[in-house]
Hints:
The chain is mostly beta strands. About 10% of the residues lie in helices and about 65% in strands. The chain has one domain: monomeric porin ompg (Porin, Beta Barrel), CATH 2.40.160.40. The protein has one helix and twelve strands.
Amino acid sequence: MKETTTIKHVLTCLFFSIWYSHSLAQIPVEISAGHAGYYYQHSFATRFNPGKSLGFFYTSSILIPYDKNRGNEIMSQSYLSYTMSKRWTAGVGTIFAPVNRVRPSVFFQYFHKGKTTSVLIYPRMDIWSVPNLELMGFIEYKGAVNRPVNLYARFQYMTTWNRNGHSRSYQYARAGIDIRDIQFGLAANFDQYGSLATNYSNFGLFVRKVF
Length: 211
Protein backbone atom coordinates (compact mmCIF):
# COMPACT_ATOMS: atom_id res chain seq x y z
CA MET A 1 0.00 0.00 0.00
CA LYS A 2 2.80 2.40 0.90
CA GLU A 3 4.65 1.60 -2.36
CA THR A 4 1.48 2.22 -4.39
CA THR A 5 0.98 5.60 -2.70
CA THR A 6 4.59 6.55 -3.38
CA ILE A 7 4.23 5.64 -7.05
CA LYS A 8 1.09 7.78 -7.34
CA HIS A 9 2.84 10.77 -5.75
CA VAL A 10 5.87 10.43 -8.02
CA LEU A 11 3.72 10.09 -11.15
CA THR A 12 1.75 13.19 -10.09
CA CYS A 13 5.00 15.13 -9.69
CA LEU A 14 6.15 13.93 -13.11
CA PHE A 15 2.92 15.11 -14.73
CA PHE A 16 3.02 18.60 -13.21
CA SER A 17 6.75 18.92 -13.89
CA ILE A 18 6.19 18.21 -17.58
CA TRP A 19 3.13 20.49 -17.75
CA TYR A 20 4.80 23.42 -15.99
CA SER A 21 8.09 23.24 -17.85
CA HIS A 22 6.72 22.56 -21.33
CA SER A 23 7.09 26.16 -22.39
CA LEU A 24 10.48 26.54 -20.68
CA ALA A 25 12.55 23.64 -21.99
CA GLN A 26 12.70 20.73 -24.39
CA ILE A 27 11.66 17.45 -22.76
CA PRO A 28 12.90 14.15 -24.23
CA VAL A 29 10.45 11.38 -23.31
CA GLU A 30 11.07 7.69 -23.98
CA ILE A 31 9.04 4.53 -23.38
CA SER A 32 10.29 1.00 -24.05
CA ALA A 33 8.55 -2.36 -23.69
CA GLY A 34 10.15 -5.76 -23.86
CA HIS A 35 9.87 -9.40 -22.91
CA ALA A 36 10.73 -8.67 -19.25
CA GLY A 37 9.11 -5.33 -18.49
CA TYR A 38 8.54 -1.65 -19.25
CA TYR A 39 10.84 1.35 -18.91
CA TYR A 40 10.07 5.07 -18.98
CA GLN A 41 12.37 8.09 -18.70
CA HIS A 42 12.28 11.83 -19.23
CA SER A 43 14.37 14.85 -18.32
CA PHE A 44 14.57 18.58 -18.80
CA ALA A 45 16.94 21.44 -18.11
CA THR A 46 16.09 25.12 -18.18
CA ARG A 47 17.44 28.46 -16.99
CA PHE A 48 15.32 30.79 -14.88
CA ASN A 49 16.52 33.64 -17.10
CA PRO A 50 18.02 32.93 -20.55
CA GLY A 51 20.84 35.38 -19.90
CA LYS A 52 21.74 34.01 -16.46
CA SER A 53 23.52 30.90 -15.20
CA LEU A 54 21.04 29.66 -12.57
CA GLY A 55 18.48 27.10 -13.64
CA PHE A 56 16.68 23.88 -12.87
CA PHE A 57 17.47 20.31 -13.91
CA TYR A 58 15.18 17.32 -13.49
CA THR A 59 15.38 13.68 -14.55
CA SER A 60 13.22 10.70 -13.71
CA SER A 61 12.73 7.07 -14.71
CA ILE A 62 10.40 4.18 -13.86
CA LEU A 63 11.27 0.50 -14.38
CA ILE A 64 8.32 -1.93 -14.16
CA PRO A 65 9.38 -5.60 -14.47
CA TYR A 66 6.84 -8.32 -15.13
CA ASP A 67 8.51 -10.28 -12.32
CA LYS A 68 6.66 -9.07 -9.21
CA ASN A 69 9.49 -10.33 -6.98
CA ARG A 70 11.76 -7.60 -8.34
CA GLY A 71 9.31 -4.79 -7.65
CA ASN A 72 8.97 -1.47 -9.46
CA GLU A 73 11.99 0.85 -9.49
CA ILE A 74 11.53 4.62 -9.41
CA MET A 75 14.28 7.23 -9.64
CA SER A 76 13.74 10.98 -9.51
CA GLN A 77 16.36 13.76 -9.32
CA SER A 78 15.77 17.52 -8.94
CA TYR A 79 18.54 20.14 -8.89
CA LEU A 80 19.25 23.83 -8.74
CA SER A 81 21.82 24.08 -11.53
CA TYR A 82 24.57 26.50 -12.43
CA THR A 83 25.83 26.73 -16.01
CA MET A 84 29.57 27.41 -15.98
CA SER A 85 30.08 27.34 -19.75
CA LYS A 86 28.49 26.04 -22.93
CA ARG A 87 29.41 22.45 -22.03
CA TRP A 88 29.85 22.38 -18.23
CA THR A 89 27.10 22.49 -15.59
CA ALA A 90 26.99 21.74 -11.85
CA GLY A 91 24.10 21.42 -9.45
CA VAL A 92 22.88 20.63 -5.94
CA GLY A 93 19.54 19.05 -5.07
CA THR A 94 17.96 15.73 -4.17
CA ILE A 95 17.58 12.19 -5.47
CA PHE A 96 14.69 9.87 -4.66
CA ALA A 97 14.93 6.08 -4.91
CA PRO A 98 12.89 3.42 -3.05
CA VAL A 99 15.95 1.96 -1.29
CA ASN A 100 17.41 5.18 0.14
CA ARG A 101 14.32 7.42 -0.12
CA VAL A 102 15.28 11.10 -0.49
CA ARG A 103 18.92 12.12 -0.18
CA PRO A 104 20.77 15.37 -0.89
CA SER A 105 22.91 15.11 -4.00
CA VAL A 106 25.40 17.03 -6.16
CA PHE A 107 26.32 16.56 -9.81
CA PHE A 108 28.85 17.79 -12.34
CA GLN A 109 27.94 17.51 -16.03
CA TYR A 110 29.70 17.67 -19.39
CA PHE A 111 27.43 17.87 -22.44
CA HIS A 112 28.43 18.35 -26.07
CA LYS A 113 25.87 18.49 -28.86
CA GLY A 114 27.27 18.21 -32.37
CA LYS A 115 25.53 18.22 -35.74
CA THR A 116 24.85 14.49 -35.62
CA THR A 117 26.25 13.22 -32.30
CA SER A 118 25.71 14.21 -28.66
CA VAL A 119 27.80 13.14 -25.66
CA LEU A 120 26.86 13.38 -21.97
CA ILE A 121 29.08 12.57 -18.96
CA TYR A 122 27.33 12.97 -15.61
CA PRO A 123 29.10 12.09 -12.32
CA ARG A 124 26.96 12.39 -9.18
CA MET A 125 27.39 11.89 -5.42
CA ASP A 126 25.05 11.69 -2.43
CA ILE A 127 25.80 14.19 0.34
CA TRP A 128 25.32 11.59 3.05
CA SER A 129 27.17 9.67 5.76
CA VAL A 130 27.37 6.66 3.44
CA PRO A 131 27.46 8.28 0.00
CA ASN A 132 26.84 6.63 -3.34
CA LEU A 133 29.23 7.58 -6.14
CA GLU A 134 27.61 7.41 -9.54
CA LEU A 135 28.65 7.87 -13.17
CA MET A 136 25.99 8.18 -15.85
CA GLY A 137 26.15 9.21 -19.48
CA PHE A 138 25.25 8.53 -23.07
CA ILE A 139 26.37 8.91 -26.66
CA GLU A 140 23.60 9.60 -29.16
CA TYR A 141 23.55 9.67 -32.96
CA LYS A 142 20.65 11.34 -34.79
CA GLY A 143 21.93 11.62 -38.36
CA ALA A 144 22.01 14.65 -40.63
CA VAL A 145 19.48 17.42 -40.08
CA ASN A 146 16.74 18.42 -42.54
CA ARG A 147 16.06 14.86 -43.72
CA PRO A 148 12.59 13.28 -43.48
CA VAL A 149 14.08 9.94 -42.36
CA ASN A 150 17.27 9.47 -40.34
CA LEU A 151 19.07 6.75 -38.46
CA TYR A 152 18.92 6.95 -34.67
CA ALA A 153 21.17 5.22 -32.13
CA ARG A 154 21.99 5.73 -28.45
CA PHE A 155 24.07 3.97 -25.84
CA GLN A 156 23.27 4.99 -22.26
CA TYR A 157 25.08 3.75 -19.15
CA MET A 158 25.09 4.19 -15.38
CA THR A 159 27.09 2.65 -12.54
CA THR A 160 26.75 3.30 -8.79
CA TRP A 161 29.20 2.30 -6.05
CA ASN A 162 29.54 2.84 -2.29
CA ARG A 163 31.97 1.69 0.38
CA ASN A 164 30.40 -1.78 0.28
CA GLY A 165 31.18 -2.16 -3.41
CA HIS A 166 28.92 -2.27 -6.46
CA SER A 167 25.32 -1.19 -5.92
CA ARG A 168 23.57 -0.65 -9.25
CA SER A 169 24.47 -0.42 -12.95
CA TYR A 170 22.80 -0.51 -16.34
CA GLN A 171 23.59 -0.39 -20.04
CA TYR A 172 20.78 0.58 -22.44
CA ALA A 173 21.13 0.42 -26.24
CA ARG A 174 18.75 1.85 -28.83
CA ALA A 175 18.83 1.45 -32.63
CA GLY A 176 16.13 2.64 -34.99
CA ILE A 177 14.99 5.46 -37.21
CA ASP A 178 13.92 9.08 -36.81
CA ILE A 179 10.83 10.20 -38.74
CA ARG A 180 9.69 13.80 -38.23
CA ASP A 181 11.45 14.02 -34.84
CA ILE A 182 9.93 10.78 -33.52
CA GLN A 183 12.46 8.03 -32.86
CA PHE A 184 11.52 4.36 -32.61
CA GLY A 185 13.15 0.96 -33.06
CA LEU A 186 14.87 -1.83 -31.15
CA ALA A 187 15.71 -1.62 -27.45
CA ALA A 188 18.05 -3.69 -25.27
CA ASN A 189 18.30 -3.09 -21.50
CA PHE A 190 20.82 -4.70 -19.17
CA ASP A 191 20.41 -4.03 -15.42
CA GLN A 192 22.80 -5.16 -12.67
CA TYR A 193 22.16 -5.14 -8.90
CA GLY A 194 24.15 -5.72 -5.73
CA SER A 195 27.75 -6.63 -4.97
CA LEU A 196 27.55 -9.63 -7.34
CA ALA A 197 26.10 -7.49 -10.15
CA THR A 198 23.19 -9.87 -10.75
CA ASN A 199 22.06 -9.16 -14.32
CA TYR A 200 18.55 -8.86 -15.78
CA SER A 201 18.01 -8.37 -19.52
CA ASN A 202 15.08 -6.91 -21.41
CA PHE A 203 14.75 -6.90 -25.21
CA GLY A 204 11.97 -5.11 -27.04
CA LEU A 205 10.95 -1.85 -28.76
CA PHE A 206 11.15 1.84 -27.89
CA VAL A 207 9.55 5.10 -28.95
CA ARG A 208 10.99 8.53 -28.14
CA LYS A 209 10.05 12.16 -28.78
CA VAL A 210 11.33 15.54 -27.67
CA PHE A 211 8.40 17.76 -26.65
